[in-house]
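Predict structure. Chain length: 176.
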Amino acid sequence: MKDSSLTGVERFFDTNELIVSKTNLKGHLTYCNDIFLKIAGYTEQECLGKPHSMIRHPNMPRCVFHMLWQTIQNGQEIFAYVVNRCKNGDHYWVLAHVTPSRNAAGTVTGYHSSRRVPDRATLEGQIIPLYDKLLAEERRHANRKDGLNASMKMLTEMLQSEGRAYDEFIAKLQAA
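Prediction complete.
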C-alpha cells in the first residue's frame, strides 16, 4: 500500500551530526536538538509534548519498534536502524541508540535517543531487504496484531538461525 503523503525523497545529514531527542515514559517528546528539527522539518513548538511516533515512517516494520519498546521498558539500551518520516513526507535513515534516562534514585524517568548516519552498505545490503520482508509479512494479515506477531516470529526465527540475540545481530552489522 502506497502512502500518498510520502514523497519518496530521502534526506541526509552529515556524519559529524547527531540527532538527539528525549521523551517521557509515554514516548512524548520533551527535547529535540536542532539537527532533529532541521532534518524532520518541524519547529520545537510542533514537537514538544507530541508522541515521538509523529516521525514514524509507515514503511518501518512494527515488530522493530515493538522490540525497541520492550527493551527500553525493561531498562536496557538498544541500537536499531530506523527510517523516519519528515513533516513534508520525505524520509531519512538513522542508526538509533535508545537508552532509559534515570533519576538519582535509579528510577527510569524517560528515554534518550541519539541517532547517527547509518552505514549505507549495511542499509542496502541487510536492513532494507530485511525490513521489506518483515513489512510484507505484517501487511499480509488483515488483523494488525496478527501481522505484528507474524513479523516478530519471522525476526526471532532469523536471529535464532544465526544463533544471535538482536543486539548481537546489530553489533555484527556495525562491525562489518
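Summary: The helical segments are 34-40, 44-47, 62-73, 120-139, 144-162, 166-175.
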